[in-house]
Amino acid sequence: MLLCIENINVYYGNIQALHDVSLTVAKGEIVSLIGANGAGKSTILKAVSGILTPRSGRILLADKDLVGVSPHRIVRMGVSLVPEGRGIFANMTVRDNLEMGAFTRNSREEIEKSVAEVFSLFPQLRERASQSAGTLSGGEQQMLAIGRAMVAKPDVVLLDEPSMGLSPLLVRDIFLLIREINRAGTTILLVEQNAFMALSVAHRAYVLETGAIALTGIASELRQNAKVRAAYLGDVAE
Amino acid sequence: MRLLRSLVKTVAAYALLAGSISFLAGAGFVNPYWVQILMLACIVAISAQGLNIIYGFTGLFSLGHAAFYGIGAYTAAYLMKTYGGQSQAAFLAALLAGGGASAAVAYLIGLPTLRLTSDYLGIATLGFGIIMKVVFDNADSFLPELGGARGMTGIAKMTTIPWVIFFLIVSLLVVRNTIHSRYGRAILSVREDEIAAETMGIDTFQYKMVGFVTGCAFAGVAGGLYAHLYTFLHPSNFDFFKSIDILIIVVLGGLGNMSGTLVVSFGWIFLLEGLRVFLPPGYVELRWVLIPVLLIVTMLLRPQGIFGAHEFPFLRGKGAR
Ligand SMILES: Nc1ncnc2c1ncn2[C@@H]1O[C@H](COP(=O)(O)OP(=O)(O)O)[C@@H](O)[C@H]1O
Ligand SMILES: [Mg+2]
Question: 3-state secondary structure string, chain A?
Answer without folding.
Answer: CCEEEEEEEEEECCEEEEEEEEEEECCCCEEEEEECCCCCHHHHHHHHHCCCCCCEEEEEECCEECCCCCHHHHHHCCEEEECCCCCCCCCCEHHHHHHHHCCCCCCHHHHHHHHHHHHHHCHHHHHCCCCEHHHCCHHHHHHHHHHHHHCCCCCEEEEECCCCCCCHHHHHHHHHHHHHHHHCCCEEEEEECCHHHHHHHCCEEEEEECCEEEEEEEHHHHCCCHHHHHHHHCCCCC
